[in-house]
Amino acid sequence: MSQVIHLALLGCGVVGQGVLTQLKIQKKLLKSRQVNFAITKVLVRDPAKYQDLAREHQLELVTDIQDILTDPQIDIVIEVMGGFQPAEDYILACFAAGKHVVSANKNLIAKNGPLLIATAQENQVAFYYEGAVCGGVPILRTIAQAYSGDEIFNVAGIVNGTCNFILSQMSQKQLNYQEALVLAQKNGFAEADPTNDVAGWDASYKLVILAHFAYGRKVALEDLKVAGIENVTAQDIKMAQQIGYRIKLIAETKKVGNAITLIVWPTLVFESHSLGQIENENNGVFVKSNNLGEALYIGPGAGSQPTSNSVVTDLITVASEMKLNITGQTFHSFDEAGTVVPQNELQKTFVVFLTKELLTTRQILATIKEEGFTVTFQELKDNGLALFTQRLSFNEVERLEKFIDGKAYPIFE
Ligand code: HSE
Prior knowledge:
Elements: E1 4-10, H1 14-25, H2 27-32, E2 36-43, H3 51-57, E3 60-62, H4 66-69, E4 74-79, H5 87-96, E5 100-103, H6 106-122, E6 127-128, H7 139-146, E7 152-158, H8 161-173, H9 177-186, H10 195-198, H11 201-215, E8 225-226, H12 234-242, E9 245-256, E10 259-270, E11 282-289, E12 293-300, H13 304-324, E13 339-340, E14 347-355, H14 361-370, E15 375-379, E16 384-393, H15 394-404, E17 407-410
The structure holds L-homoserine (HSE).
C-alpha cells in the first residue's frame, strides 16, 4: 500500500462535501492509481453545523488555521472556502508552511494569481486549480498540456452555467429574465444574490485565468470589457431567433498581433454554431490554434460532483509530483510579454434591434446614413427591424443605439 497523503479542507460547502464523498466512494479507484488520501481536518466557521459529517468521515473540525498550518502530517490543503480574504492569507500561509494547495477559487486567482503562483514556486510547493474554470471541464489542464507545442489565437466560451441556464430557459420557454432567474434559483443554478454570475463577474474571473493559460499573459480584471445578462429581454431573444441567432454570454480573448482582446458580453451566436447549441448549465470553450485548428470542449461547468472531480484530479497530480519529488512547478506552461487592446479600441460587428413604431424603415435608414453609419437590414415580425452594422467600437454602437432607440449585440465571429 502506498503512503497515506494527509489532506485538510478549508471550507465545507458544496464542493468541499463533494470532495469528501468522492474520496470516500473512490477509495478502490484511487488505490489502483496508487494514491491513498485521508482528509483529517476541516476548517469551518461553525463546527456545530458539521457534527454529522465529521462523524461520518472521521474528521476533526477546526476553527483556527494554525491547527492546520502547524500539523506536520498534513501535506495538501484544499481551499474551497471561496472569496478573497481570508482565503488568500490562508493559502499564502500554507505555502510558507510547505503545504501544497489545490483551490477552486476563481475570484482570488483572477485577482492575485501571479502572487500566489510565485509564492508557491518560491516555497517549492504545488498549486493547482482546475476546478476554478468551467467546473468539471478539464480546460486548464488541456490548454497547459495539450497545447504546449501549439499557438493559441482565440479562446471563446460559455463559461458561466447560471447565465447559460437563464438564457436557455428564456429562449426555450419564452420566459422573461426575472422568471428564468427565479427558475434558476429554484433549481440551484443561481444564488439568492445572483449578481456575481449575472453581471458577468464570474465569467470575467475565468477569462483572466484562461488568457493566462492560453497566451501566458498576466491580465488584470480592469483590462476586460464586461457586461452581464440582466438587460437581455425576451423581446431581444425573439428578434435574435428570427435572424437565426441565439444570445449567449460569451467570454472571449483573441490575439491580434502582439495584443489580446478581452471581452465578456451577451453575444449573438449563430444557432447552428456548436457554441449556440450548448444549453442550460453546461459550459463550452472553443479554442482556435495554429496546429489543431478549431476545437470545442463541452461539459458540466458547475455542481458538486463535476467540480470536485477537478479537485480530486489536481490532488492526484500533486501526489504524483510528491512521489517524484518534483513539486513546485507552475500549472500553466509559459509566460509571455504583450499588450491588451484598450477597451475603447475594441471593435465588433453588431446587430441593432429596434421596433419601428413611428418611423418607416426607409426613414430610419436615411437618418442613420446622415449620422455616418453604414448598415444592412432585415425586417422582422411585429414591426421589428434588425440592423447589421460595419465593424464599430462599443462607444460608436452606443451612440447608434441612443440615436435610434435600439439595442445592440455583437456577433460572434
Ligand atoms: N456560478 C458558477 C457558474 C459556478 O454558474 O458557472 C461555477 O463556477
